TrEMBL record:
Residues 89-160 form the PAS domain. Residues 33-92 form a coiled coil. InterPro entries: PAC (IPR001610), PAS (IPR000014), PAS-assoc_C (IPR000700), PAS-like_dom_sf (IPR035965), PAS_fold (IPR013767), Sensor_kinase/Photoreceptor (IPR052162). It holds the Pfam family PAS. The keyword Metal-binding does not apply. This is histidine kinase. The keyword Phosphoprotein applies. Keywords: Coiled coil, Kinase, Phosphoprotein, Transferase. GO terms for biological process: regulation of DNA-templated transcription. Gene3D superfamilies: PAS domain. Transmembrane segments: none annotated.
Amino acid sequence: GSHVIVSYEGLIARDEEGNFRQTHCILYDVTERKRAEEALQKAHDELELRVAERTAEAEARAQDLLRANAQLEREITEHKQAEEEIKAQKKFTDNVIDSLPDTFYIFDPESGEGIQWNRTLNEISGYSYEEMSQYPPSHFYPPEEHQLIEEVVKTTLENGRATVELNYIIADGTRIPFEYSTVLIKNAEGKPCICAIGRDITERKRVEGALEKANAELELRVEKRTAELAAANEQLQRDITQRK
């Protein structure tokens, strides 16, 4: 009493006068294929939704944290008597930034100098704080992506934000795919800086690759079935001819 999803191909054979003689049909059980396609698509959609939600959350947290840092800097100048308390608050903010699961990096778009980054970036990259401070942002990406980085910086300066996928090169030379959301901010002196929040999208790329592979395999199976059907049709035609 169970149901299966099938596809079928058929051929109607007629005699010399055009009268119906017989049909030749081939049924294919595609239930598992449909289930696999639906499962892969569902996984892909859920992952895209999680990525979008996490990106929005990270951007909101970054803006809140940056505003908090700016406020702290102003208070240090205006209220020397509260210096110790402010330092404690700043330390808390830095600890929150360090606890973010995504990479957090602020740099000067004019000089390319890194200004602030979180511990997550050090841990993922394999570079120490001292090593990170010696290199401009472009050092951590392949040469073929440098032009794209320049375009993203320009877009961020003009529009206030941008999104881009880049391959981050960690200390051992491994390339990790990241999706970055950049936001234009200003430091205490009003100078423009860029905050880049990056997320490792290795798993998303794996799911996309699996989906592409499944689609490619499906295409091959369809081609194979089509060829089999064509061969069967040719054989049927020969059989009909021989019976005449």
